[in-house]
Design a protein that fits this description.
With 290 residues, the chain is α+β, with helices and mostly antiparallel strands. The protein has helices at 24-28, 46-59, 68-81, 127-130, 153-164, 210-222, 233-238, 269-282, and strands at residues 4-7, 10-13, 31-39, 42-43, 87-94, 112-119, 132-138, 169-173, 180-183, 187-191, 197-199, 227-228, 241-246, 250-257, 260-261. Helix content is 28%, strand content 27%. It holds the Pfam family Aminotran_4.
Length: 290
Amino acid sequence: MSKIAYVNGRYLPQSEASVNIEDRGYQFGDGIYEVVHLHDGRYVDEDLHLARLERSLREIALPMPMSRAALSMVLREVAQRNRVREGLLYMQVTRGVSRRDHAFPSKPVPPALVVTIRRVPAYPTDVDKWQAACITLPDLRWARRDIKSVNLLPNCLARQTAREQGAIEAILFDEKTGMVTEGAATTFWIVDENGAIRTRFLDQVILPGCTRAALMAELRTLGIAYDEREFSVEDVRKAREAFITSATSFVKPITKIDGLPVGDGKVGPVVRRLFEIFARHVKGDVKNAA
């Protein structure tokens, strides 16, 4: 069956779908995107993702292409037309089609909306097989990383460098301070040398991860303490455990960074439990996670 995409009001086979060459997303990266995990026919943390989409759009003065309720219907229709119950949905909103000029169109044009979905394996069941390695790299991205912009060239370069070194992610840090920001496409966490679960506080330097927020909500429900406090690359070297979170990584243990083991180089007890907690969250069964 052909993959079906939603493109500006039409459901089309992806092989026939196209956007105008003067779409500002294509020419300027003038747009916002979101990625949402579909589990057993249910979009995980849909409200968090749509709220973040709305916020990012406001930050660049770009209106929603339709109401949230209408957009939710489009997301479900795309999944249904593709007969996908376990997948990753991608949606992108750009400022639309206009004669090439850096400034916004003098006469507003309709925002452009594209939605696609692809099948992915279900949430992993074996945390030990889910572990991975990372590298560290200087953070070269723009100053407003809290906006989920389609401008991802520095992220792509970082991910490619990680791949070339046999890792799945690049953990980025501020060259001036040595403080860790986040992963190229993930939130980065450590269990520090004192046993505290830590990740960086939110500001304009990092993206407000939806999986980050969802995991924090479950930790609060279960009475598990965590600390939103920045840490350095040196702190990472001393950490007992480390992990990343995202809509595609869920809770992924990181057992090697820059070729060196994190802690004893195995999946630790804290991350093991967080993995199980988030698995229940994905399945809508966190009440049994205690």
